[in-house]
Amino acid sequence: FGRGAPVTLEIGSGTGEQVVAAAAAHPERDFLALEVWVPGIAKLISKAVDAGVGNIRVIEADAAQALPIMLGEACLDEVWTFFPDPWRKARHRKRRLVCDSFALEVARLLRDGGVWRLATDWDDYAWQMRDVVEACELFENPHAGERPDPADPQPERGGFAPRYDGRVVTHFETRGIDAGRHAHDIVGVRRPRG
Predict the structure, then answer these.
(1) What pLDDT digit, counting tens, does each position of 8-65 carry?
(2) In the chain, fewer beta carbons within 10 Å around the N or the C end?
(3) Which pairs from 62-65 meet CB under 8 Å and 24+ separation?
(4) Which is catalytic among the residues 30, 77, 85, 178?
(5) Strands (E), 121-192
(6) What's the chain's Rg over C-alpha atoms?
(7) Which residues contact 125 (CB under 8 A, 6 or more apart)?
(8) What's the average model confidence in pLDDT over 181-193?
(9) CA-wise closest residue to 153 among 186, 175, 179, 131
(10) How confident is the model at residue 176 (pLDDT cuts 50, 70, 90)?
(11) Handedness of CA 103, 104, 109, 115 (dihedral sign)
């Protein structure tokens, strides 16, 4: 980026609705977008040009494969994982991005006190995300016990954050709402090293 500014990584930027809105609202921050869907990348770039933002960089890469070799330790202030592929079929759930090993990679990239923001409109994935964050000793869930969900297998457990003010309603979330689903937000704060 050629400057010293807080950096947010969005994993799975889709067509750029979220990252372009954030970059326009926060010119003092830099945004790195990882996406594998080439038509989405093209739309993201078009939206960024239309919005006149210059604080976004886009990389065509699979986050799970690229992050361990692409970025150094403690280089990010925030990581966003909004509405990743839910891999709905039980036999495919092992392909879900948010898992124990991925949490360790995100923790490696975040500065102490950095924030991992997640959201999904698939209930079982929300519970998995919450469980992954809370099971990782490198993260604290500041919303542990909050906003319990009666549909949760552990209905009193909670652990869900209020909707992140900076998260726009994208077409993916709108499709979920239209299908009768609601989003769960989860937050992990990077514990201090050492």
Answers:
(1) 999 999 999 999 999 999 999 999 999 999 999 999 999 999 999 999 999 999 999 9
(2) C
(3) 62/34, 62/36, 63/11, 63/12, 63/34, 63/97, 64/97, 64/102, 64/105
(4) 85
(5) 139-140, 184-190
(6) 16
(7) 84, 86, 96, 98
(8) 97
(9) 131
(10) very high
(11) positive
Q: How confident is the model at residue 88 (pLDDT cuts 50, 70, 90)?
A: confident
Taking the C-alpha atoms of residue 47 and residue 60, their distance in angstroms, rounded to an integer, is 16
Q: Residue 31 has which token pair?
A: 């945004």
- Can you tell me whether residue 40 is helix, strand or coil? helix
Cα–Cα distance for residue pair 69/122, rounded to 1 Å = 30
Q: Which of 114, 97, 31 is nearest to 62 (CA)?
A: 97
- Contact status, residue 118 vs residue 189, Cβ threshold 8 Å: no
pLDDT digits (tens, 9 = 90+) for 90-128: 888 899 999 999 999 999 999 999 999 999 999 999 999
The question of whether 185 is a catalytic residue gets the answer no
For 31-51, give one letter per residue: b (16+ CB within 10 A) or e. Answer: bbbbbeeeebbebbeebbeee
Are 29 and 7 in contact by the 8 Å Cβ rule? The answer is yes
Amino acid at 47: K
Q: What is the per-residue pLDDT for 84?
A: 95
